[in-house]
Amino acid sequence: MKTRLSVAMVLLLLAATAWITTSEARQTDDDAKEATSAADSILPTGELVTLYALDDSSCAFDFDRGQVVEVDRARLDLASADMVFNRYAEGALTFAHKRDAKAIVIDLGEEYVEANRQPTDEAPQIPLSIYYSIFLDGRRIKYVDGGGTLHHHRRGQDVLNQFPDSGAFSVEPQAGHTYLLRYQDRLRGVSRLVKFQVIDFERGRWLTFRWAPMA
């Protein structure tokens, strides 16, 4: 009787162990899927845009509509643009150039997220620009590291500060740098938070950048 009971207990323990192992494996798979889904949702590739300093039809950009803006031939202005290249300051990007418009720009520099190399990795891994990793989570600016862990980006958080009262201002773009831009256009009733990375730049000639909305 005792032998039969012992065998039954052993079988029960084996079954429980197998169930726990299977459940843990399923949970791991579910966690991996959730992490992948989260990464896909917060790491948009964005759009690649080139502005030309000497072209009246492609020297400015409207982030709200996601398109290049040309000089208004009737009024000779760029009232529908949120960012202007080379027109108000040579070789620079100008923001808040319109009446009732405010903006704040944070230069994150040439910042990269280092790869989280595992001992079993064979292929060499490369760092990824912070542009692809940074995002808005509620009222906090965060980024994802190479291991999939979320962190608060303290420098990026400054983009949510109060708008300055200085009006129009210009920023000298730097190739490889990532910028956070928050702007408000009361005339159009628009308020946006975007990120962009300068891909290529030649002073007085052209500016190529990649951008994506954050809010």
Quick structural overview:
The protein has about 220 residues and is α+β, with helices and mostly antiparallel strands. It contains two helices and 15 strands.
Protein described:
This protein has 215 residues and is α+β, with helices and mostly antiparallel strands. The protein folds into 2 domains: 1-42; 47-213, no CATH class. Helices cover 21% and strands 34% of the residues. It contains 2 helices and 15 strands. It has a 5-stranded antiparallel β-sheet, with no helix packed on it. A 5-stranded antiparallel β-sheet has the order 3-2-4-5-12, with no helix packed on it. Strands 9-10-11 form a 3-stranded antiparallel β-sheet. A hairpin with a 3-residue loop joins strand 14 (190-202) and strand 15. The protein is globular, with a radius of gyration of 25 Å.
Radius of gyration over C-alpha positions, nearest whole angstrom: 25 Å
Total of helices: 2
User: What's the shape?
Assistant: globular
What share of the residues does DSSP label as strand, in percent?
Answer: 25-35%
Query: Main sheet: which strands, in order across?
Result: 1-15-14-13-6
Unreliable residue runs:
1-5, 7-39
Largest sheet: 5 strands, antiparallel
Number of domains: 2
- Proportion of helical residues: 10-25%
Backbone structural class: alpha+beta
Mean pLDDT reading: 80
How far apart the termini lie comes to 70 Å
- In N-to-C order, the SSE pattern is HEEEEEEEEEEEHEEEE
What's the total count of β strands?
A: 15
